[in-house]
Design brief:
Layout lengths: L1 H28 L9 E11 L8 E5 L4 E19 L4 E19 L6 E22 L4 E13 L4 E4 L5 E7 L12 E14 L5 E11 L4 E9 L2 E9 L3 E9 L22
Antiparallel strand pairs: 1-3, 1-13, 2-3, 3-4, 4-5, 5-6, 6-9, 7-8, 8-11, 9-10, 10-13, 11-12
């Protein structure tokens, strides 16, 4: 538990420092082709990539006879995104995504080499809310960085068996309390992304980058059972649900909203009263 909290604190510390640096850079360099008073909608596709470096790869445990592991394989997310420009350098971004995480569970006998596998998937619906800042690199090229919260909803528990039915896995949604009846379908985490976008004045914005999600608690509790020829062994793992993605986005072109000028800023002959 302590190591998991340390990961969150380190992520917050380094993420906030980078965000502060980017905000300062935005003030320093300025931004003439800005987002202020622009509300735009877009579409995004995000392949989920496995990486042991940030804990999104293999989770392992050892039973009495067999070794068990669960490997997060290539998955994907897609959905819509909305961006609201607040200032020339700051926007708020939100949306909704369909997320499919793909896993492979394996059992392995370290002495005789026997092994078995079963694959399963976990479906989630994700609503992120992030603060987004910009650095202008060229006339139409910008670097973006965002940091915020992501609400994740998991509709069901999942189970699967291997082809020869020797290996069985059952994954239960993790609850916020000791009882499994307290919001087992809900998880919240930190999300950060960085990327680059090419902005046109007529056909919209094209974005490429990457994201990292770190949930506040493990998303699923996975039980693994290997049973063959009267020999039974069990393992238990927690699936954190964190992920790394490659992000591809397209934002539709929108004109800045017209701001109504208050009466006290107008000449006397133009005022309504």
């Amino acid at each position: 538990m302590q190591s998991y909290l340390d990961r969150i604190l380190n992520f917050l510390k380094h993420g906030l420092l980078r965000l502060l640096f980017i905000v300062i850079a935005c003030f320093w360099f300025g931004n003439s082709f800005c987002q202020e008073r622009v509300t735009t909608f877009g579409l995004q596709l995000k392949p989920l990539v496995s990486s042991n470096l940030l804990g999104t790869g293999i989770a392992q445990t050892v039973g009495d006879t067999f070794d068990f592991d669960v490997d997060q394989r290539l998955g994907y997310a897609f959905g819509g995104v909305m961006r609201k420009g607040l200032t020339p350098w700051l926007s708020i971004e939100t949306g909704i995504n369909f997320v499919r995480r793909n896993y492979e569970a394996r059992s392995f006998h370290p002495r005789n080499g026997n092994f078995d596998t079963t694959r399963f998937r976990i479906i989630a619906y994700e609503i992120p809310v992030s603060a987004l800042v910009f650095v202008r690199l060229a006339e139409q090229v910008y670097m973006d960085a965002a940091f915020g919260l992501s609400v994740n909803m998991f509709p069901s528990d999942v189970s699967s068996t291997s082809f020869d039915q020797d290996l069985f896995q059952r994954s239960f949604r993790n609850s916020w309390a000791e009882t499994s009846s307290v919001l087992p379908w809900l998880n919240v985490g930190l999300i950060a992304n960085v990327g680059f976008e090419y902005r046109t004045r007529e056909i919209g914005y094209f974005y490429f980058g990457g994201s990292y999600l770190l949930p506040f608690k493990p998303s699923y509790n996975t039980f693994l059972v290997h049973e063959k020829n009267g020999i039974r062994d069990e393992g238990f793992l927690r699936l954190t649900g964190n992920y790394i993605t490659l992000d591809f986005r397209y934002f539709f072109h929108e004109e800045p909203e017209e701001r109504e000028i208050p009466d006290d800023e107008l000449p006397a002959w133009m005022r309504k009263n």
